[in-house]
Amino acid sequence: MQNKQENLTSNNVPLHLDIGSSTYLKAFSNIGLMSLNRINNNEYFFPVLDKNNNDDDQNEDILIVDFKQGKPISFSIKPIEIKKPIIAIDTSSIKIAENSEGFIIAIRGAIIQRFLNKFSAYLIGPFPFYVCEENSYLIYNRLRNIFFGLKENVNPPLLEHISKRIGNLFDRWLQIYVAEKFSDSILLFDGSLTAGTIDSPISIMKNIIEIAQKNNNIIMAFSKMTRLRIHGIRITEIQSKEPYPYVINIDNCLKQMKYKCFGNIYVARLSPFPFSYRLDIAPFSKDKHIEALGILLNNDAIIYGYPETLLLAHVLSTFNKIDVIGFQRLLASEFNFPIYENEDIRETLFQPF
To answer: 0.70 cut: is pTM over it?
Structure first.
């Protein structure tokens, strides 16, 4: 349950962060551990090999309405030889065991720094939680209060979605942390800068942007999946006549949005491979965005059109099967509850055929 620092190569520099002593992180960890204490010793669990909840499909995009009021504007991007740190963060959440009342979930985050072609990585977690119908209201609202200072309680998400939603809260808090901790850097986030949802209140997103601006950081949020469409076409299918790498600004095409987006929205194609991404950039002006993209190309490798530093943050925060099995065994040992293999109802029904 402790954070740790990992070097990716022998040519790395240490990344010194005080996140381990953060009162917010200690409170987050304590709430998770206290939730495990409500498990009775005579209860038993079945293992869950669930997929990680770190996809960045923007569900809120579907409510954006676009009209034929403007045209996308393309910008060609050229590398700019300015040295600047690249900081990427990502988080992951996963269900690892279940009983008749709820789930044990795990949350983990990663902060990656790349500067002068040297990497450092900082892993935070994993943090376990036991969530059931009886405690989900308390846990979810306590976390909103601790991380964001929000006093108003809200209904918790369905249990099936609770791991992703707690992961989202942790992700936003990590974004606040790196915006405060680093300066004169490019911050890479997974997802978008959309605000107004329960997990991303406008006041919190505004705070992240203002802190970044105060520290002269620029935020780039990459979405691999989006439902944003212009004239019925998914925005990532839009192409430019500009030679790659390029970005297409689509702000002029958006008229009505239920949710607020902090920053400008682009479609980014940064490599010859046919992969484009939604890219939200903030704060500052579009001119500075284009310049920052040139600096990004000079300081980070681009893998299939995606920044390598953000790719590493994703990989290191994601739970693989060995992580899950090891964590299941650790929790069963530490908290003295058995985990039994469950019968697979699909195999039982269909294996004879």
So the answer is: yes
